[in-house]
């Protein structure tokens, strides 16, 4: 943690940390404290007076059926996005891991969606799945499906999950590929000599050795699905139709912006904060485990 | 390859090319749409091959803009996004490297407190403090300014941790040696540490440039004037009008332009990108 040789100076270190600490205090801690404080306040309809109400905002929130739905929806979205993007990425990574000359090209052609902004990914997918002009929507209608993500909540959810999965495959692929390439060939060859076929080798040797990567990626994917889907949702469905794609983060945004319900929005922020802290803690416990491996 | 199975060797290639095709399809479609006549797309008669309006559509997108909703030419938005991405990435690197330097190479009161203060911001993303942060930015009259777009985002726990980790691996002998040469803390930083950190800074820059370019929620809150819009915000405003008015070829041209810089960075600087991604996630 600390260097054996170091500089001694009364002023310089404080000047060096000043910019970062100032920004952190002004734009991170102060607003976070305000969010916690506001979550205990109730503002009247005209914003003229506020009263301290303790946990009333939280109680209201937990009794609001819409909020419970948003929690379930957010976790369902996260699970779907994580499951889909992890399985597709793992399949592609296993295929790309087989020693082959063109390996580098495959990686280049698969990792670029990482750089696409979520909102832009949303625009690409709404264009394909738009009920009146989308190319894929035309295909679905030809199959007899009355596809309309602007009116049908399930269709809208599929749209959001598809766009989010599409964007996340590249990230998972990269980490799976790195994980696979760090597995020593000799272990796999030993299993082959013992007579294990490719499928058996994968599930009994490769996959267990890959499990730290899998676990790490699950946490990262959940965080991604919680927060980075905001851009996709805002660019495509706006949380609708009738709240079918309203996640926790999107609800904080809507309730504060349109509803003007600052107390409830702040209480939602605090609950999100707790979720982030929990996820970060899990992530760091994993890192610790990897170090002691 | 552990065993050879003749025809089976082709399967991985097929799966990979199928995956690449599926992943690339939405972008191909966007490109095709950006080269066609608007009415063909609006009628649902879009061709799957590029049309002849490439130059026309891109010229209109960059220099004129759509005729409805946001009238700003996308050229302005590209400029705004570029300034924002550069300021965020360079700003994060600059303030993080000096704070990591202070934390590793100095002993001063509250050193660990400062470290934790920066570290804990990992758990406070914009999304959990939307309105209070917006209010502070408004109180400091940062709305609709580049300072407002970038300043609140340039603190970085990840970058600080990364530089701290790297500095810890720099041998102490280097400091002793430069001290014998009569170098003070500033010269040691400038002449020894900065050159050593070049690769780390470059890898971090690639990741942070993409992060900055793709920012959505914060620019959405902080910019109200059309000429301060970034391209990622602008594109969304182009399609919220009623279907009939959406000029899809221009929207798709904007999507292509919005993807081009960050995707080019990933492809051209792939080694640095992979390194940055793996290291920032540690």
Structure description:
The complex is a heterodimer of chains A (293) and B (282). With 293 residues, chain A is an all-alpha fold. Chain A has one domain (72-292): Orthogonal Bundle (MetI-like fold), CATH 1.10.3720.10. Helices cover 73% and strands 2% of the residues of chain A. Chain A contains twelve helices and two strands; from the N terminus they run αββααααααααααα. Chain A has a two-stranded antiparallel ribbon. The two termini of chain A are 20 Å apart. Chain B contains 15 helices and no strands. The interface between A and B is large, with 100 and 103 residues.
How many DSSP H or I helices of chain A? 12
Give the assembly state of these chains. Answer: heterodimer
Low-confidence stretches of chain A: none
How far apart the termini of chain B lie comes to 31 Å
Mean pLDDT across the residues of chain A is 84
What is the mean predicted local confidence, pLDDT of chain B?
86
Largest sheet of chain A: 2 strands, antiparallel
The geometry of chain B reads as globular
Q: Name the CATH superfamily assignment of chain A.
A: MetI-like
| Helix content bin of chain A | over 70%
- Compressed to H and E, one letter per element, the order of chain A equals HEEHHHHHHHHHHH
Q: State the end-to-end CA separation of chain A.
A: 20 Å
Quick one: CATH superfamily of chain B?
MetI-like
Structural class of chain B: mainly alpha
Biggest sheet descriptor of chain B = none
Keywords:
heterodimer, A: 293 residues, mainly alpha, MetI-like fold, two-stranded antiparallel sheet, 12 helices, 2 strands, 73% helix, 2% strand, B: 282 residues, 15 helices, globular
Structure summary:
Chain A is mainly α.
Provide the fold topology.
The complex is a heterodimer of chains A (293) and B (282).
Chain A: H1 12-38, E1 41-43, E2 50-52, H2 56-63, H3 65-97, H4 103-111, H5 118-129, H6 135-142, H7 153-181, H8 185-193, H9 198-227, H10 229-236, H11 248-257, H12 262-292
Chain B: H1 10-33, H2 38-42, H3 54-64, H4 74-105, H5 111-120, H6 130-139, H7 146-150, H8 157-169, H9 172-180, H10 185-196, H11 198-213, H12 217-222, H13 231-239, H14 248-268, H15 270-280
Helix pairs in contact in B: 1-14, 3-14, 4-8, 4-11, 11-14, 11-15, 13-14
